[in-house]
Amino acid sequence: MKLADNKATLSFSNGSPSVELPVYQGNVGPDVVDIRKLYAQTGMFTYDPGFLSTAACQSAITYIDGDKGELLYRGYPIEQLATQCDYLDTCHLLLYGNLPNAEAKAKFTKTVTYHTMVNEQMQFFLRGFRRDAHPMAIMTGLVGAMSAFYHDSTDINNPEHREISAIRLIAKMPTLVAMAYKYSAGQPYVYPRNDLSYAGNFLHMMFATPCEEYKVNPVIERALDRIFILHADHEQNASTSTVRLCGSSGTNPFAAIAAGVACLWGPAHGGANEACLTMLEDIQRMGGISKVGEFMNQVKDKSSNVKLMGFGHRVYKNYDPRAKLMQETCKEVLTALGLENDPLFKLAMSLEKIALEDDYFVQRKLYPNVDFYSGIVQRAIGIPVSLFTAIFALARTVGWIAQLNEMIGDPEYKIGRPRQLFTGSVKRDVPPVGAR
Ligand code: SDX
User: Are the CB atoms for 131 and 184 separated by under 8 Å?
Assistant: First the structure.
């Protein structure tokens, strides 16, 4: 970042001395007012619950222009990455800052491929869960448990440990998600195969059985790979900020990523894809498109607490570019599977059309986000609704790791320790129990 020729002056109406604060510029996007010395100089904190106006770090990984609906991974537009690259290209880009040439790609692919198996002991963790446990409960446990197996890569301050744990996490997440699915389905686990692509291997581990050969459908393989690309990283969202804050204590990478998995689970965040599909199925059950108007009235009635899941975003105040690509992927997969008349897809399209013409949504700049169509395409592939967020976590793991490693490599980073505005009881004495 570079010092701007602009400065911020903070003055107080009570006559307290004003304070001059430096302003820094990035390469694109809003400048920042550096308030690091504010408390020392004024004895005051800033107040920004939800961090709507706060830059928690400097980063060179992902840039979002919410007004334009633009998303860049290391400067490359998501539309180009999603159509011209694959997920492992994207992983290499996010981790190392550049797209791999053919030789680097082959090396990276081989490295990831040869780390896809998990320690055989890990399967016994699953036996401790009920068969109907939510896959995100299982994933939170399994990812954290990885730190119990890979003691040779838990020192986050050791660059070699960071490198090998990044590869292990990227390589093993598909295996663990597929194991969580097989456990809930009561089917035997399927080992990874080194002759399959990253997405093809996941499909094989998910849907193959010992009873017959499973052929990976190339259209679905490509669609899933694109879904992984679209979910790979997204600036300082809630789960990424969780990983950074968790990692700032120096804890091991597996524990920090497990914290990200736990945060992503929430319906306001990664859990929205599951909530969105459930919402569409509920409307379908109530009567489908004929009931959309009634549902939208509920959404606009604040007292109902009903939200149009898959709509709205903290940063995008325009169409989420990932939603557009996801809608295209939806059409490709549904057509390939002969499901072009899928009622839920038609319902989603009509919901989107109505919302984009409705003042309530237009005024609040609410557009479809990445979660609006992702559930429909995953359901068409045969992925159970409860597994959607686990697949989001699988894809986002590379972003979490890239952001965590960037923080650890930043000489300015310290353990994160926000302050507060205290509104509780001031000091008082404990009354005897008879006087309480
Ligand atoms: C992800 O941050 C990221 O980058 C996240 C993510 C990533 O890749 O990491 O993009 C992934 O989490 C996408 C978002 C998935 N969540 C959902 O689809 C859940 C539904 N969306 C809402 O919960 C909401 O839009 C949020 C949480 C996504 C954003 O909330 P904000 O920015 O805090 O916005 P807000 O709640 O202040 O909303 C502004 C207004 C409010 O109305 P008013 O008080 O101004 O009258 O819009 C309303 C909200 O009530 N609103 C909605 C709505 N989203 C916002 N009303 C109905 N339906 C919605 N979906």
Answer: yes
Q: Does ligand 1 lie within 6 Å of residue 272's CB atom?
A: yes
Q: What is the pLDDT of residues 84-116, one digit of tens each?
A: 999 999 999 999 999 999 999 999 999 999 999
pTM value? 0.95
Q: What count of other Cβ atoms lies within 10 Å of the Cβ of residue 138?
A: 23
Q: Choose one of 369, 372, 394, 396 to mutate for the ligand 1 pocket test, by most ligand atoms within 8 angstroms of C-beta.
A: 369
**Residues whose CB falls within 8 Å of the CB of residue 188, separated by 6 or more in sequence, listed in order:** 182, 209, 210
What percent helix, strand, coil does the chain show, rounded to 5?
A: 55, 5, 40
> Long-range pairs for 347-355 at CB < 8 Å and ≥24 separation?
347/280, 347/283, 347/284, 347/288, 347/289, 347/292, 348/280, 348/372, 348/373, 348/376, 350/289, 350/292, 351/280, 351/283, 351/292, 351/295, 351/296, 351/308, 354/292, 354/293, 354/296, 355/296, 355/308, 355/311
Structural tokens at position 215: 């052929």
- The amino acid at residue 240 is T
**Which residues are part of the catalytic machinery?**
313, 371
Which amino acid, 10?
Answer: L
β pairing state of 19-25 and 2-10:
antiparallel
Nearest CA to ligand 1 atom 40: 364
d(CA 94, CA 71): 13
Residue 259's pLDDT is 98
- Among 261, 311, 403, say which to mutate for ligand 1: greatest number of ligand atoms within 8 Å of CB: 311
